[in-house]
Design brief:
Blueprint lengths: L4 H48 L6 H82 L1
Length: about 140
């Protein structure tokens, strides 16, 4: 027996939801990796600053830090931009996830309504049969 159009739609919605859920997990992972990269870049600046400001550091260490600092700041800016982009991507996929879940729920609700209508129709048919039998029985008496 061929599946009903509604069952086919449910199958498609389930596949869509699964795909969007995986995309969301991947977006969260990318955002986490970007945040870790930012944290590492910030920690590197603090570490280099601590080394350069150590009482045992000579002028060469301070000069090396001052030459390196623009690159360190650039790394922080780039990592921050990566975080911003990853957060935007995650938000976009989250919106798609919400929409896919809503669509899935709508189709499931429609299926439940359809099942209830079928159940009610079956009950009406059964009642009609009972009414007909009762009418025959009372008609003979």
């Amino acid at each position: 027996m061929e599946p009903s159009p509604l069952e086919t739609l449910i199958t498609l919605r389930e596949q869509e939801l699964d795909l969007v859920e995986r995309s969301f997990a991947e977006a969260v992972a990318r955002e986490t990796a970007a945040e870790e990269k930012l944290t590492a870049a910030q920690a590197e600046i603090l570490n280099e600053q601590r080394i350069a400001s150590s009482p045992t550091a000579d002028d060469g260490a301070v000069e090396a830090f001052s030459r390196w600092l623009p690159a360190g700041r650039l790394a922080v800016r780039e990592a921050g931009e990566g975080c911003r982009v990853a957060a935007l991507e995650r938000a976009a996929v989250r919106s798609a996830l919400i929409a896919a879940r809503a669509a899935m729920e709508a189709v499931r609700t429609l299926r439940e309504e359809q099942k209830e209508e079928e159940r009610q129709a079956d009950l009406r048919k059964e009642q009609n049969v009972l009414d007909e039998l009762a009418g025959r029985q009372f008609g003979r008496s």
